[in-house]
Amino acid sequence: MFESLAASVFDSAEDFWAWFLDKPLTIILILLFGTIAIGVLRRVVTALAEGIAAGQKPRAVVEQADPVGAPGIDVPGAKRRRKNVLMTPQALADALVAANPRAAERRAQRARTVGSVLNSTINVVIGTVMVLWILQVIGMNIAPLIATAGVAGVAIGFGAQTLVKDFISGIFLLIEDQFGVGDNVDLGGGVIGTVEAMGLRLTQVRAFDGTLWYVRNGEILRAGNRTQEWSRAVASVQVPLGTDVDAVRAALGRAADRIKDDPELAQHLLETPSVRGVDAVDGAGLTFTLHAQVRPAQQWAVARSLRVAAHAELLSAGIVARSAPTPTEEHAVGDTPGVS
């Protein structure tokens, strides 16, 4: 039947095959190889994205401490000969990732989002090339079409430049991992709180008072992340003028030891709490500061415990004290306000 149909249209079989090999076969090959290219590239991108999303279990490399003794970092499963150890920068980074329960979720979200964007880009680019190539094969002049599409693209891009800016900014926010869901951030303009959702166009931030901020990614000019990799707990106390400084430092040192020896709090510490000394002298008294490097998002809980321990030790030493204002006094969502 096919041969009879071909014979009715073409004068000879040679004419049919000449026609078939000229355009139809070229179009079929374009569709075939274009589809294969899309499939292969999408599989590669998806495999890479899923591999990054799954990740590998980090291993902390622990080195011998130097003779002076560096602050210990408690890494589950790490073997230590001494109480205080010194870790390589890479081992510290791996330990921080392992300690952050949101790290795997953030990595998976970032990898899958970028993978989805790349897959969509592959579809659009290869699909457009295939269509233009086929139109050229069948004899259509594609130059006016490309020019028209270019003008239309410029017009659409000009009208939707804000939307495009938001999407591009969202992609870079994810790729660079500036912040993720669960991080406590300061995005400027009074937007301070915990990130509840991230998209390519919008970021949702929940403030401590419950306000949910919707921030377009293109409007984020700076981002302060208070819970990325590590944080610092800072607690300030104030004592009356004329108080024995050495006695205060001794009491605060005992308070720091109490926090270090508390099993529940010690798991959040990345260094031993220390007393910085007299930070300010004014009419209200002397201000002393305790601080410690801690795991992400644990600075507020550790700071409150430092204040409580400091007050207890100062009172036992017969020194009356009160909490002094601490810089960037901000709490994560669900965090209980600090205890004075």
From TrEMBL:
Entry keyword annotation includes Lyase: no
Keywords: Cell membrane, Membrane, Transmembrane, Transmembrane helix
SUPFAM superfamilies the UniProt entry points to: Mechanosensitive channel protein MscS (YggB), C-terminal domain (SSF82689), Mechanosensitive channel protein MscS (YggB), transmembrane region (SSF82861), Sm-like ribonucleoproteins (SSF50182)
Coiled coil: none
GO cellular component labels: plasma membrane
Gene Ontology molecular function: mechanosensitive monoatomic ion channel activity
Location in the cell: Cell membrane
The Mechanosensitive ion channel transmembrane helices 2/3 domain, residue ranges: 122-161
One Pfam short name: MS_channel_1st
PANTHER family, alphabetized: MODERATE CONDUCTANCE MECHANOSENSITIVE CHANNEL YBIO (PTHR30460:SF0)
Protein family: Belongs to the MscS (TC 1.A.23) family.
Protein name: Small conductance mechanosensitive channel
Taxonomic lineage of the native organism: Bacteria, Bacillati, Actinomycetota, Actinomycetes, Micrococcales
